[in-house]
Amino acid sequence: MSPVGACLRLRAGALPLALTLTLSRGVGARAASGVGCGKGPSYTQGQSPEPRTREYFYYIDHQGQLFLDDAKVKNFITCFKDRQFLIFFFSRLRKNQSGRYEDTFPFVSLCGRERNFIRCDDLPVVFTHLLADGPGPPRLSYGGAGEALAIPFEPARLMPLPANGRLYHPAPKLAGGVGLVRSSLAFELSSCFQYPPGGATLPTHILWQGQKYPLTMDLAPLFSKSCGP
């Protein structure tokens, strides 16, 4: 059975052939390399440690792209793109407290007896687009799902991290409470930052839609609890 295949068929009908083929590739034993989250034990895609239980292993890069963890090539061509699948997968994302692979795969997406373990280059939630059109307030989307996976944009809670030059924003609590802003979007938002005199490296305020907000930096305590910086 392909990763997440059984649950998707139950909830959303048969998968497109292209997606089914993609999900079935890369099955085999390998050592989990744990980029960004430490090294760990070997695994086999689709292994069944208990009766009627299947386990699969995924990787999320710093652009928010999702791959089978043991895919030899990880780029835009090989990442998952089916919107229905991405909504299903990321809506079930949470911290891994299963007692299995917690150090190497700190996050999991559960579907009944199917466990989909996740490791990441930085953090599993990567905000890729700012949805500012329409009558409502702006929203940040993640998981490649547009409005289907989006949270309110809170400009005052953006947090630049000098250690790695990346930008972060609050994320759903089940997914760790903090997410990475993709580099291209972070570059756009950085033009709104305001710095104190004296050549400070960190901004203190953000000018957003004509209003000046002090940056709260309240996300800092969450990083020690997340797979990331």
How would you characterize this protein structure?
This protein is an alpha+beta fold and 229 residues long. 14% of the residues lie in helices and 29% in strands. The radius of gyration is 19 Å and the shape is elongated. Residues 1-38 have low confidence and may be disordered.
Task: Sum up the structure in keywords.
229 residues, alpha+beta, 2 domains, 6-stranded mixed β-sheet, 5-stranded mixed β-sheet, 4 helices, 14% helix, elongated, disordered N terminus, signal, DUF4505
List the helices and strands and how they pair.
Layout: H1 5-12, H2 17-24, E1 29-31, E2 42-44, E3 54-60, E4 66-68, H3 83-91, E5 93-95, E6 107-111, E7 114-120, E8 126-131, E9 139-142, E10 150-152, E11 159-161, E12 166-170, E13 178-181, H4 183-190, E14 193-194, E15 205-208, E16 211-214
Family: Belongs to the UPF0598 family.
Signal peptide: 1-29
InterPro entries: DUF4505
